[in-house]
Amino acid sequence: MGNFDNDINELYKRLDLYIMRNYEHPVERRRAKSESGGKFMRKMAAEACCEAEPILEDACFCRLPNGFEDAVLDRLEDSFGTLLVKTINKKGLVNADVYKDANIDRRLFSKIISNEGYSPTKGTVLALAIALKLNLDETTSLLKSAGYALSHSSKSDLVVEFFITNMGGHYNIDVVNDALEHLGQPILGSRLY
Q1: Going from the N-terminus, what domains does the chain have, and what CATH number goes with each?
Q2: In the chain, N or C: fewer CB atoms in 10 Å?
Q3: Sequence-distant contacts of 105-114: CB under 8 A, at least 24 apart
């Protein structure tokens, strides 16, 4: 048992060091943004003002340029559920193994892959990234498809990033969740006891 305790203590020391090096404190970041951001935000608001001829007399609706809809649709990427299914197939995995390894309920998993517009929580996306054993770039793409990103102002995100980048592919949701609990952060998936 002594070796296990030493291993856990060493893991937490490495994790603490990683967070100290990468954590961006939200108050400091807000202060830096407020000092330079005021002018920027006023400029953006002024540029956003509609200069085109209004469609309705009392409303400021800009006319969309020709080809706007085609330009948007050409850039549209796969939904989260579609990307998830493609990733599972690409890795040759079975759906049941993925949702079990992510500690996600089968019904939630089914909802994610069958409902094109469903948006899972960030914790669910990260749990699936761990279960799929994704590298940092793949995790970033999966998060982006659900409308999220990893942030160095979130200790939870740093814990996940630490395990993906520094632990040689150590992808065990229970170990990640233990580290999250150790730092007082919410766990990924839903613990099954």
Answers
A1: 26-76 (no CATH), 78-193 (1.10.260)
A2: C
A3: 105/190, 112/80, 112/81, 112/84, 113/81, 113/84, 113/85, 114/81
Task: Let me know how long the chain is.
Answer: 193
Over the Cα atoms of the chain, what is R_g? 21
**What is the 3-state secondary structure of 136-180?**
HHHHHHHHHHCCCCCCCCCHHHHHHHHHHHHCCCCCCHHHHHHHH
- Write down the residue that tokens 């770039």 correspond to: 137
- Give residue 32's region: left, alpha or beta (phi > 0; psi -120 to 50): alpha
36-to-8, 31, 33, 42, 88 alpha-carbon distances in Å: 42, 9, 5, 11, 44
> Rounded mean pLDDT of the chain?
77
pLDDT tens-place string over residues 5-30: 778 888 888 888 888 888 766 554 44
What is the band of 87 on the pLDDT scale with cuts at 50, 70, 90?
A: very high
